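Sharing a chain and its predicted structure for anyone who wants a worked example. Both blocks are below, sequence first, tokens second.
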Amino acid sequence: MDEIRGVGMQCSGGVGNPTVTELAGPHNEEVRHLRGVLLKEKIMIRFTADHHYVIGHEHVLSGKPCQDHAHVTVAPDFAGAFVSDGCSSGGETDIGARVLTRSTARAALMHWSIAGSLPDPATLNVEQRLVAIDVGRGLGLSFDDMLATSAYVLLTRGGGYAHLVGDGVIAYRKRDGRIFLARYDWANNMPCYPVYGEDEYAGFIKAHGNDPEEKAFTHEEWVWYPDRGFTHMHTIPMTIAAGIRGAHMYFDAIALHEEIDTVAVFTDGVTRIDGMDWKDAALALLAFKQPAGAFVKRRLQRFQKDVRTTGKGPLDDLGYAAIRIANDPEE
């Protein structure tokens, strides 16, 4: 599939779930050669990132706070974008979601600063949970306060990945205008939360029928082409065990240097826009007019104004974070 060359997707750890798109990884000779050419020509990647989050119509009516959160961080040769969706039937998950985005960002940046490389998702999942639990306890938060999803993108000059535990959407846009969308959902609207790892996910698995091989996690892929609109790639049911490990999307160095200009993560609020298909909502939110400064905030604010002319707008809270990628010659 040429449209997603250089990008790989799988559920972390495998366990019988296929890698659905082939990753042009570091052992591919063509990629190794191209990477060498890039280094020889001293092409640099420049990252910019922004985020925003808004309260949903249903939360306004019920008097609940916005329980989604988004956050970004940019350092030399590193960028991260993070979103979290707090459970509406949990505790003070508006705080829990904020703790989770900040804890994930802190754990990832600390690993990058010390090791000079990105942590693998399994390692970051553990570090994220430990930092979040420590911060949460310091703030007096309960288990129910920490019921929140986690989706993030980590990018460096050498490549990167997006990872999602829970539900939501991962998206990226290619420089020729094509847009890739991956949506993830759990059966019965019972997503996995990182905090469930405290009991090794036993309670979560039991709530889904007590069989970790039951298929309760769904991965849906679409590609939008400027000349012909959306094409459905596939919908794949996955096991509870695979969903617990999370959905994972890799980006190699060549994809970031030459092919992709934006990578984004959304909470599942993007799938609940009154009177609007979720794919059209994601597409509209990626249509930046000025991709600099507060580009996500401006786009989301304009989007809200537009969709409220024909409906109620976002029915659920919506968190959105994105990283823009530009190539600059090294001076």
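Comments welcome. The chain has one domain: 50-329.
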